[in-house]
Automatic annotation (TrEMBL):
InterPro entries: ADH-like_C (IPR013149), ADH-like_N (IPR013154), ER (IPR020843), Gfo/Idh/MocA-like_OxRdtase_N (IPR000683), GroES-like_sf (IPR011032), NAD(P)-bd_dom_sf (IPR036291). This is Oxidoreductase. Belongs to the zinc-containing alcohol dehydrogenase family. GO terms for molecular function: metal ion binding; nucleotide binding; oxidoreductase activity. The keyword Metal-binding applies. Residues 11-363 form the Enoyl reductase (ER) domain. Its cofactor is Zn(2+). It comes from Pseudohalioglobus lutimaris. It comes from the Bacteria. Keywords: Metal-binding, Oxidoreductase, Zinc.
């Protein structure tokens, strides 16, 4: 793997090829996706590295003091050799990254392979392709947060800790001096907390950016309006708290702070700056001066950072890890937006050039990140198929539909609903034989019938409904997508990775994401009650889904798995989609086992127990069975989450256990959601809006199904990050 190093003696920066770090207990190995460059801390270190020995000594008087003490204790020669050895060694750069978990060490089982995480720590969250990071310096990245934004979590936590130290309250007024990256982040955090903000910076562009980020006003320090704006905003009282987020040797920030401050106001120092406090001025107002130490309690405590010993929340509410979690929650809600702040994302291959340009003062961006792999696995990077939805057009009139396939399921569960929908015109039905096509046309009122789906797709229809046998789905879906049709296909979307890849290629090449798979269970009224019952519980869940599919009759085409795919591959998407629906999370890994009696049959291989781990920490257990008694109801779902338990019995009834109560609900009839699903699909096509299930979710569910079969073959856990198309 590769890692950036700096020789502090001569300032040389190199992209080195080094050994992969070893996995240790209490931590995880992380494949880095993005690493953030701290223009303050790292920029200073890079510039210092290029200084002469005298320049280094002037820049770091704290280290000079240590050298003098060492000379007194160990002598000049010994100290000189020790200092030169330390200077002439390679040191890492970087301390804030995002990536995915590669391996989990003993004692860090709260994380799982493939999980998206943000990491902190000098010497841990390095500019390196793979990092070992102790668990207290790692937090999960919520769904919806961009990985390039999550890479700045540590830096954002520095601003967050400054805010914690201020103890500001709703409605107070803050002044942020220094509108670099930390200052800009702090402006957003303060604004999100209901604090009025004034910003100060020497650079006009940064002042303008702060106002865009929510500051009441942002001015240069020499601006004559500064005092007047402060007095106006505070009704003449003065600033409640001033944050110094600037660096350098000027005492200007300290002098400005006391002029703007109210009586008994506060000052929080975040940046490394000169603090020559004017005694009289600070004494007369009795100003409270505080320091914010890095990204929170736990920093510089090896028992916390390396030993994994957390502080009890009753004694230390906000540790560095809990600050990191808080930052990511703000990003998830949109209250902290890194997009206006990140000036550029550079390929890691160019790291030497970028860091050298920073040291030479050529870069004016306040935030830069490295992208560590231009080919980051498509499954782990932010999916972008759904982004194509922005180009969809609405249909002014009724939706004209082609039905490709009209077998028993389509004729009993789908076509009757479409025939009754006033927004649908049944334009053409396509089947393998002329007689079956004619029968469907007469039965449901299609305008025409044919036996060629290729010819039908050339026509003027808006949408294609595909209900043929499984092995044809990927081919037909790809053709319909390329023909610019909206597509509804019965499960499965594909029976192998090659088929799924062809669909993906069709969607991307044609910029047509109007695809829906018939995962109807989530549209059932009772399943939606399950979802609603869990909506206020933002915690991972355990889901047990038992499906008794029953034995197949001799001669069933399902038994020809080499040709049509297995029965499990055809049906499992229904149940994995329920897991995705309830968790609103992506699957990370799959582990499957099947029944293996002494004399095994193909039907035995469709008796599976599958465990799926999800990005939010949830677990889905699917028991897919064929060998039980035929009188057993087909489906049963149990969900356990945050003190609530839910039992769904074959879409006939459900029980919700919450607190001391058990709420029993009984359906009028078994409704697995087909009617509601088709209504929403037609509505989406007509309006030109996104399909009811996101296209990325459809692909995830299909991958989870195929990964189950792969897990059976390998006899091990399959991570979807290693199993993507």
């Amino acid at each position: 793997m590769r890692q950036i190093s700096q020789n502090y003696k001569n300032g040389t920066i190199n992209l080195e090829t080094v050994n992969t770090p070893k996995l240790k207990s209490g931590g995880i190995l992380v494949q880095t996706h993005f690493s953030a460059i701290s223009m303050g801390t790292e920029g200073m270190k890079i510039r210092e590295g290029g200084m002469s020995m005298l320049g280094k000594a002037r820049a770091r008087p704290d280290q000079v003091k240590k050298v003098i003490e060492s000379v007194q204790q160990q002598g000049l020669k010994s100290t000189y050799e020790k200092v030169m050895n330390k200077l002439d060694s390679l040191t890492p750069l970087g301390y804030s990254i995002s990536g995915t978990v590669l391996e989990v060490g003993k004692g860090a089982e709260e994380f799982q392979v493939g999980q998206r995480v943000a990491c902190a720590g000098v010497g841990y969250a390095n500019h390196a392709e793979i990092n070992f990071v102790p668990k207290n310096l790692v937090v999960p990245v919520p769904k919806g947060v961009r990985m390039e934004d999550a890479a700045f979590t540590t830096i954002c936590s520095i601003a967050m800790q400054g805010f914690r130290q201020s103890e500001m309250q709703l409605g107070e007024t803050a002044c942020v001096i220094g509108l670099g990256l930390i200052g800009q982040i702090l402006v957003q955090i303060l604004t999100a907390s209901g604090i009025n903000v004034i910003g100060i910076d020497l650079v006009q562009e940064r002042c303008e950016l702060a106002e865009l980020n929510g500051a009441f006003c942002a001015l240069q320090p020499q601006d004559e309006r500064l005092m007047q704006k402060s007095q106006t905003l505070t009704d003449g009282l003065g600033i409640d708290c001033t944050f110094i987020a600037a660096g350098g040797s000027s005492n200007g920030p300290v002098e400005i702070a006391h002029k703007l401050a109210r009586d008994r106001g506060r000052l929080v120092d975040i940046g490394k700056t000169k603090l020559d406090l004017p005694w009289n001025d600070y004494y007369e107002k009795e100003l409270d001066v505080r320091f914010a130490r890095s990204y929170g309690p736990g920093r510089y405590d090896s028992n916390y950072e390396e030993g994994g010993i957390d502080y009890p929340v009753g004694y230390v509410r906000w540790t560095e890890r809990r600050n990191m979690q808080s930052v990511l929650r703000l990003m998830e809600k949109g209250s902290l937006d890194m997009r206006p702040l990140i000036g550029s994302v550079e390929p890691f291959d160019d790291a030497e050039r970028v860091l050298k340009s920073i040291g030479e003062g050529e870069r004016k961006d306040i935030a830069i990140a490295f992208r560590h792999n231009d080919d980051i696995d498509a499954f782990q990077s932010s999916p972008n198929r759904s982004a194509l939805n922005s180009s969809l057009d609405s249909i002014g009139d009724k939706v004209k539909v082609i039905a490709i396939g009209a077998g028993n399921y389509a004729s009993s569960m789908l076509l009757p609903h479409l025939a009754k929908n006033p927004n649908v015109i049944l334009h053409e039905v396509v089947t393998a034989t002329s007689l079956s096509a004619m029968n469907a046309m007469n039965k449901f009122g299609f305008s025409r019938s044919s036996t060629s789906f290729e010819d039908a797709l050339l026509g003027e229809a808006d949408a294609a409904i595909i209900t043929t046998r499984h092995q044809s789905h990927a081919l037909m879906v790809s053709a319909a997508i390329k023909a610019n049709k909206a597509v509804y296909v019965e499960k499965p979307l594909a029976i192998d990775l090659e088929g799924l890849a062809s669909v993906d290629d069709a969607v991307r090449s044609s910029a047509n994401p109007r695809l829906m798979v018939g995962f109807n269970r989530r549209f059932s009224p009772l399943m939606r009650k399950v979802k609603d019952s869990l909506s206020e519980i933002n915690l991972p869940m355990v889901m047990n889904y038992r499906v008794h599919a029953g034995q197949l009759e001799e001669g069933s085409w399902y038994l020809k798995s080499d040709e049509h795919g297995s029965r499990f591959e055809g049906e499992a998407g229904h149940f994995f989609d329920v897991f995705a629906f309830l968790t609103n999370s992506r699957p990370l890994s799959v582990f499957a086992r099947c029944l293996r009696p002494p004399n095994i049959s193909k039907d035995d291989l469709d008796n599976l127990v599958v465990t799926v781990q999800y990005e939010d920490g949830s677990i889905g257990n699917l028991l897919y069975l064929t060998q039980g008694n035929k009188k057993v109801p087909k489906e049963s779902l149990e969900v356990f989450c945050g003190g609530t338990s839910i039992q769904l019995h074959n879409f006939e009834s459900m029980k919700i256990y919450s607190g001391d109560k058990c709420n029993k609900i009984k359906a009028r009839s078994i409704d697995k959601g087909q009617k509601n699903e088709l209504l929403e699909v037609v509505s989406a096509i007509k309006a030109g809006s996104q399909m009811p299930i996101s296209i990325d979710c459809l692909f995830d569910t299909t991958l989870a199904t195929l990964a189950s079969t792969e897990s059976l073959r390998r006899g091990e856990v399959v991570c979807l990050s290693d199993f993507s198309i």
